[in-house]
């Protein structure tokens, strides 16, 4: 199970922040319940890890012990339990960056991604280019794109208005600049940016009516202008300009849409 577990998103959500802690500090005392718990966690034995981390909290109660216990809940996607343990870690160790990152992940997963992004932006400014901070920032940014988009009845996410389009554009670009080295997160950001750029393209929704209006503009717009010019009839020229402009305006107003608008109408 080890390789499969360690390739999962759950493991990455847990383990990435621990890259900030030297490996030796997690396993320097093999008899320590924390070290044993971490070994169980690495192998995907969540029940065993939970018991050992709980023992570590009773025996030592270090901030990292509570963070690790919270990570067991992260693996199970039990967000309230994870938040509780990360908060306890901050009570014991108020400057614990691991607990801060854990809480940011919880917020990103529970509809508070905007708050998570704001908190991670502060960390990112103090640790410029850190791929660990970048990982959690990218997760929060992508979670925010889920929050701002519209969910259809069958669970699909789509861009439903111009404000959502602008927000997704900005958020997707920020994922690329987050500093993360996680290929899946970067790919998700690129895919969203491609969707945004595709959605910004203009298309004609009904070619036949547009062609008819083009013919109207040519016959009753351009022709009167030419004839009026030859005859020196300014009223005829003005009439041609008005008719042609009206036909073009109506065609654009009625039948030209950005692609995201058509997707939104089809939900």
Automatic annotation (TrEMBL):
Keywords: Membrane, Transmembrane, Transmembrane helix. This is Tetratricopeptide repeat protein. The keyword Transmembrane helix applies. The chain crosses the membrane at residues 86-106, 210-227, 233-253.
């Amino acid at each position: 199970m080890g390789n499969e577990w360690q390739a999962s998103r759950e493991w990455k959500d847990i383990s990435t922040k621990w890259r900030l802690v030297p490996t030796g500090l997690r396993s320097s005392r093999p008899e320590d319940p924390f070290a044993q718990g971490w070994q169980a966690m690495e192998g995907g034995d969540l029940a065993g890890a939970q018991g050992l981390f709980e023992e570590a909290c009773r025996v030592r109660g270090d901030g990292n012990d509570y963070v690790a216990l919270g990570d067991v809940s992260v693996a199970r996607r039990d967000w309230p339990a994870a938040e509780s343990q990360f908060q306890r870690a901050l009570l014991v160790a108020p400057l614990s960056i691991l607990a801060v990152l854990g809480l940011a992940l919880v917020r990103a997963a529970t509809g508070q991604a905007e708050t998570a992004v704001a908190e991670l932006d502060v960390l990112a400014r103090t640790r410029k280019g850190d791929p660990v901070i970048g990982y959690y920032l990218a997760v929060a940014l992508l979670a925010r794109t889920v929050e701002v988009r519209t969910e259809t009845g069958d669970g699909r996410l789509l861009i439903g208005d111009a404000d959502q389009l602008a927000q997704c554009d900005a958020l997707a670009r920020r994922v690329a600049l987050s500093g993360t080295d996680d290929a899946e997160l970067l790919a998700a950001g690129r895919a969203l940016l491609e969707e945004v750029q595709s959605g910004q393209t203009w298309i004609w929704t009904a070619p036949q009516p547009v062609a008819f209006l083009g013919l109207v503009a040519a016959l009753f717009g351009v022709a009167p202008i030419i004839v009026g010019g030859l005859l020196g009839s300014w009223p005829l020229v003005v009439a041609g300009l008005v008719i042609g402009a009206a036909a073009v305006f109506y065609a654009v107003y009625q039948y030209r849409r950005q692609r995201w608008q058509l997707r939104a109408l089809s939900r």
